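Field log, afternoon session.

UNIT: design team B
ACTIVITY: writing a sequence onto a fixed backbone
BACKBONE:
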C-alpha cells in the first residue's frame, strides 16, 4: 500500500464506525457493515426503538446501525432509565439485555408488559446466557423474540424490521 491510501490501484475506504469506540472496527460481528462517519439523521416519522443494554459498545453499534437505517433510537444503560424513557416516549420496539441479575431483567420485562400503554410493544431479549429455561420464562412473559449475544448488528436490524413491518 502506498502513502495515498491505495492498494493495487483501488482506493481504500477508511470508515469511522464511531469516534467514541474506534475498536469497534475490529469486531468480527461487524464484517460487511459499512456506515458513513456518524449515523444518519432519523426520519421525522421514524419508528422508535428503545435499547436497554449495560454494555456501552453494544449500545453504540446497535444505535448506529438502527439510526443509519432510519430508526430513532433511545438508549439506556440501566433498566430504570429504560422504563422512564419508555413511559416518556412510547417506543415502537423495546430491545432489552437479559443479564445477571436475572431477576432485575425479568422485573423490567414484567414492568413493560404490565404498563397498559406498553403492553402491545414488542420486546426483544438479548442475552449471553440465555438457556432453554430462561427462554421459556421470557416467552411466557410475552417477549416477541430472543437473540444470543453477541448479536450481529444486521441480525438485530432484520428482527426490528420484521417486528415493525419496516
Amino acid at each position: 500500500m502506498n502513502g495515498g491510501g491505495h492498494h493495487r490501484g483501488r482506493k481504500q475506504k477508511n470508515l469511522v464506525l464511531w469516534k467514541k469506540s474506534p475498536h469497534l472496527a475490529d469486531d468480527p460481528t461487524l464484517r460487511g457493515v459499512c456506515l458513513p462517519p456518524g449515523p444518519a439523521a432519523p426520519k421525522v416519522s421514524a419508528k422508535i426503538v428503545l435499547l436497554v443494554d449495560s454494555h456501552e459498545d453494544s449500545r453504540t453499534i446497535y444505535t448506529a446501525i438502527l439510526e443509519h437505517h432510519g430508526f430513532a433510537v433511545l438508549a439506556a444503560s440501566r433498566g430504570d432509565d429504560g422504563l422512564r424513557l419508555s413511559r416518556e416516549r412510547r417506543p415502537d420496539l423495546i430491545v432489552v439485555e437479559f443479564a445477571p441479575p436475572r431477576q432485575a431483567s425479568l422485573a423490567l420485562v414484567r414492568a413493560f408488559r404490565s404498563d397498559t400503554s406498553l403492553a402491545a410493544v414488542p420486546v426483544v431479549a438479548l442475552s449471553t446466557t440465555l438457556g432453554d429455561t430462561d427462554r421459556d420464562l421470557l416467552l411466557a412473559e410475552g417477549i416477541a423474540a430472543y437473540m444470543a449475544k453477541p448479536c450481529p448488528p444486521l441480525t438485530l436490524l432484520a428482527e426490528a424490521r420484521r417486528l415493525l413491518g419496516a
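LOG NOTE: The chain has one domain: 46-164.
NEXT ACTIVITY: expression trials, pending approval
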